[in-house]
Amino acid sequence: MKKFGKKGLGLLYGVLLFSFSTYAMLDTFVIPHPMQSVEINAIAETTSTSGIKESVEAAIQSKLGNNTDTTVETDSTTTASENTDTAAETSASVVEGGTVIGQYSDSKTSITLKQYREYDSNIYVADVTVSDASDLKTALANNTYGRNITDTTSDMAENNNAVLAINGDYYGARQSGYVIRNGKLYRDTSGNRDVLVIQKNGEFKFVSESETSASELLQDGALQVFSFGPVLLNNGEISVGENDEVGMAMASNPRTAIGYLGNNHYVFVVSDGRTSESAGLSLYELASFMKELGVKDAYNLDGGGSSTMVFKGEIINNPTTSGRSGEERAVSDIVYIGGES
C-alpha cells in the first residue's frame, strides 16, 4: 500500500505539474487579458491638430483587381500640397522606381502604392504624404489594450476605415516594451530595446528603453512608440550588419518596416517571403532597399507571418502563416492612414 501510495502521489504530482505548465503557456500566449479600452480621441488631446476630423471614409472605395495574387523638425501646419511638393524633391527614387499598382489622394493625404522585385522577392511600398503627423494613426485589436488581444490586419483596417494599413509591433506577444499609441501611454515596462518614437512634429527618433522611460517620452512629445526593431537606417546610414537578425529568426523573411523621408513624408514597406515566388529579405537587404528609396530613418516592425499590407480593403501582399501561404496572422495592432470623411 505504501509503495502504491508513493506511485500515486508521483503520478498526481506529474499531472498537476503538467496542468500548471499548460495553463501558464496558455495564459502567456493564448488567453486574452484585456487591460484597458482605447480612447479613440487620444490624439486630439495631445496634438495641436484637434480641429482635424478623426473620422474617415465610411466605405472604402474601389479595388485593386488581381493585384492581391501577386502577392514615421518641421512645421506641423504645412499644407498637404506643400508636403507633396517637398516629398517629390526629397525622394525622387521612390517616385521613379517600381510599378504603380494603386493610388489615393484627398485634401490631407497622398498615397502611391508600388510593387518592386528585388532580392528575388516581391516588395510593396506605399509612399505616403500627410498634412500632419496625427494623420498617421495606430489601432489596437478590438480597440482594447491587453495581452493576447488579436485580430487580423485587414479586419482592423476595415473597423477603422483605413485606406492603408500595415501590421505594427505585435506588443501583445510580449510583457515588456514601451507602448504609446496616438499620444496615450499604455505600457511603461522596459524591454531593453531600441524603440521608434514618432514625434508630434512627424519626425522619427530612436531611443534605448534602458536610457529613458515611456513617461518621459510622452512628456517630450511622443505620438507613437514602437518596441520591436532593430533600427534599419539612422540619418541615412544603415544600422544593421549583414548577419544581423531578430532573435532566432531565419535570415530571409517576410518583413514589415516604416520609414521617414522628411516633412510628413513616409514609406510603409512589406515584403513577401518563405515561398517559391518570394524568398524574403534579410534585415540588411531590407535596410539597403529602403536606403535606395531615399529613406532617411527606418525601423523594422514585426515580420514573418505577421507581415501584411492592406490598401483600399484589399490585402496587397501574400501573408504566410505557419507555412500556409495567403493566410493572415492575427496580431495586436496596426499602423494606418485614414481617408477624408
From TrEMBL:
Region feature (Disordered): 64-91
Question: Domain named Phosphodiester glycosidase: which ranges?
Answer: 160-337
Its domain of life reads Bacteria
**Listed InterPro entries:** NAGPA
- Positions with biased composition (Low complexity): 68-82
**Which PANTHER family has this protein been placed in?**
N-ACETYLGLUCOSAMINE-1-PHOSPHODIESTER ALPHA-N-ACETYLGLUCOSAMINIDASE
What name goes with this protein?
A: Phosphodiester glycosidase domain-containing protein
Native organism is Lachnoanaerobaculum saburreum
